[in-house]
């Protein structure tokens, strides 16, 4: 018996699940199935490779000595992955040794290097979740000069100390290649990194990474770097089970729905907002336009396990229901009696980003916290900003940030605005700017706590005191709304 650990970054709490080979078979099935769907919509992939930021995290043992690891790690270390067929979707620019490396920085660097050396073969750029992809682009921004030196002299940096990684990547790096180094340097030296992905990988036809739900905050950043190359959120997956795939891979990110595959687990659905009644229905009985929480029963021993995700039925593919991921059910901010979900926050921050646009700043990552140490308590948003153009200093315009606070508050739900405006039950919302790299430090912290780096998603609200300390240590400016909210209520 082996166990899977969930990342703990979407639901706020890390969990362990028993797992058997059926789970690994399901991953293999879903990888294969989604590639068939993608190749139905995009031509010319057969002879290309993927530069995909897959990697492993270190394995642990339970107190009684049983092995436990992240779901993705157990798959990459299994024979299901090792003995995969030679089909384009399984063909990567990086050798398996890079995927099996559990040092996040070494593996990301080597993925980038191998992907650049074979840039003309790359038809897809991907990662399990968009968070990893954005992190890889950040690493490229900080290390392209070093990567170019490696390519120019045909010598891998000495700090790549993982022996199997080093040997296999050195083979791919091959002889000195000054022409390629010059070409990459030329692109990276450009003042703007807008569209850097298609500039460096001109044959890339799409990006594959999950960017729905709480990860949607990264879509504008991804679009900036990818010049709107199609971005495909191809599946809905978790440590508990795989759920389904996106049958319309080229649809807009906000329209993505997942078609559930009933062979992966036995799915039932708990109707959300059913009052005192508990109404559980089978997959065939879900109704269009209703919100449900999936319950999972499967071969790994889960029985009517409540996922905690809230999904909306958006349609049917033939007769199979399709679901849009709406939010995590248990992630809420609350100061008084209002309930602000992760979906509410994401929408509000998306509105505020329009204000930021005018000042050439990009919001790289954010999280939130309900601060009740003040009277009255208030919402705090931690924002990491970056200048759109390379080498530009992040110039903060107080008016812009104060306006962002106001726009976020105006976009929040009616109950928030009533408690905030009348009776002063909620204080003015605050945006605290953090230094660049803070969200990387936050991720490192969660990884040291056992979260899997491949499955990492920035938590949309912070519950851990230690994580809060990391954010607080990096705050360099604070802004508050300075005017009253309008009380024009949306219905
Ligand atoms: P983990 O088991 O740690 O990888 O986390 C699984 C959780 O990630 C799910 O329960 C969802 O909350 C989230 N998740 C997985 N796939 C998607 C998706 N396609 N869209 C939105 N959220 C997702």
Q: Report the helical percentage.
A: 25-40%
Mean pLDDT, all residues: 91
Low-confidence stretches: none
**Ions and ligands:** adenosine monophosphate
Radius of gyration, Cα only, in angstroms?
Answer: 23 Å
Could you explain how this protein is built, in words?
By secondary structure, the chain is α+β, with helices and mostly antiparallel strands. Helix content is 34%, strand content 23%. The chain has three domains: 43-229, no CATH class; 262-328, no CATH class; 332-479. The strands form five sheets. Strands 9, 10, 11, 12, 13, 14, 15, 16 and 17 form a nine-stranded antiparallel beta sheet that branches. Strands 2-1-5-4 form a four-stranded mixed beta sheet. A four-stranded parallel beta sheet has the order 3-6-7-8. Strand 16 (309-317) and strand 17 (320-328) form a beta hairpin. Helix 6 (130-153) crosses helix 8 (178-188). The longest helix is centred in the first third of the chain and has 24 residues, at 130-153. The radius of gyration is 23 Å and the shape is globular. The termini are far apart. The structure holds adenosine monophosphate. Adenosine monophosphate binds at residues 6-7, 10, 210, 212-213, 233, 236-239, 307, 309, 325, 328, 455. Keywords: Ligase. Belongs to the IAA-amido conjugating enzyme family. Residues 258-328 form the GH3 middle domain.
Blueprint (SSEs and pairs):
Layout: E1 2-5, E2 16-19, H1 21-41, E3 49-52, E4 60-61, E5 67-70, H2 71-76, H3 79-82, H4 96-99, H5 104-117, E6 122-129, H6 130-153, H7 163-173, H8 178-188, H9 196-200, E7 206-210, H10 219-226, E8 231-232, E9 235-237, E10 242-245, E11 258-260, E12 266-271, E13 280-282, E14 291-297, E15 305-306, E16 309-317, E17 320-328, E18 332-333, E19 340-341, H11 342-357, E20 361-371, E21 378-387, H12 398-411, H13 414-421, E22 430-434, H14 438-448, H15 465-473, E23 475-480
Parallel strand pairs: 1-5, 3-6, 6-7, 7-8, 21-22
Antiparallel strand pairs: 1-2, 4-5, 9-10, 10-11, 11-17, 12-13, 12-14, 14-15, 14-16, 16-17, 18-19, 20-21, 22-23
Adenosine monophosphate (AMP) binds at residues 6-7, 10, 210, 212-213, 233, 236-239, 307, 309, 325, 328, 455.
Family: Belongs to the IAA-amido conjugating enzyme family.
Domain GH3 middle: 258-328
Keywords: Ligase
């Amino acid at each position: 018996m082996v166990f899977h650990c969930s990342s703990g970054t979407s639901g706020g709490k890390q969990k362990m699940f028993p797992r058997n080979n059926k789970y690994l078979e399901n991953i293999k099935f879903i990888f294969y199935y989604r590639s068939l769907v993608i190749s139905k919509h995009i031509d010319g992939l057969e002879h290309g490779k993927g530069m995909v930021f897959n990697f492993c995290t270190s394995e642990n043992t339970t107190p009684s000595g049983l092995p436990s690891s992240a779901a993705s790690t157990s798959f990459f270390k299994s024979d299901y992955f090792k003995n995969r067929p030679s089909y384009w979707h399984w063909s990567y620019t990086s050798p398996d040794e890079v995927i099996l490396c559990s040092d996040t920085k070494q593996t990301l660097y080597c993925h980038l290097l191998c992907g650049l050396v074979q840039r003309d073969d790359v038809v897809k750029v991907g990662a399990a979740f968009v968070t990893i992809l954005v992190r890889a682009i950040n690493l490229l921004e900080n290390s392209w000069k070093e990567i170019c030196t490696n390519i120019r002299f045909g010598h891998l940096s000495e700090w790549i100390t993982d022996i199997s990684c080093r040997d296999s990547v050195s083979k791919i790096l091959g002889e000195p290649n000054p022409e390629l180094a010059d070409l990459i340097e030329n692109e990276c030296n450009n003042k703007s990194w807008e569209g850097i992905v298609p500039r460096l990988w001109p044959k890339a036809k799409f990006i594959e990474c999950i960017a729905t739900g709480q990860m949607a905050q990264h879509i504008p950043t991804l679009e900036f770097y990818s010049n709107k190359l199609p971005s495909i959120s191809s599946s809905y997956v978790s440590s508990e089970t795989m759920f389904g795939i996106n049958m319309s891979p080229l649809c807009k990110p906000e329209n993505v729905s997942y078609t559930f595959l009933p062979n992966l687990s036995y799915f039932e659905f708990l109707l959300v907002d059913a009052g005192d009644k508990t109404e559980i229905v089978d997959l065939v009985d879900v109704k269009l336009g209703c919100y449900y929480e999936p319950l999972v029963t499967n071969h790994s021993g889960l029985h009517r396990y409540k996922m905690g995700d809230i999904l909306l039925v958006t349609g049917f593919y033939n007769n199979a229901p399709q679901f849009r991921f709406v939010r995590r059910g248990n992630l809420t901010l609350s100061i008084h009696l209002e309930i602000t979900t992760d979906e509410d926050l994401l929408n509000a921050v998306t509105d505020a980003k329009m204000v930021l646009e005018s000042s050439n700043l990009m919001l790289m990552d954010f999280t939130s916290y309900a601060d009740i140490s003040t009277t009255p308590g208030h919402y705090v948003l931690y924002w990491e900003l970056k200048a759109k153009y390379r080498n530009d200093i992040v110039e903060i315009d107080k008016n812009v940030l104060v306006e962002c606070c106001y726009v976020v508050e105006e976009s929040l739900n009616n109950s928030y605005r009533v408690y905030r405006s009348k009776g002063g039950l909620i204080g003015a919302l605050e945006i605290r700017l953090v230094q660049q790299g803070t969200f990387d430090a936050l991720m490192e912290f969660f990884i040291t706590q056992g979260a899997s780096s491949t499955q990492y998603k920035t938590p949309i609200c912070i519950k851990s005191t230690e994580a809060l300390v990391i954010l607080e240590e990096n705050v360099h400016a604070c802004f508050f709304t300075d005017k009253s909210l309008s009380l024009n209520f949306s219905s």
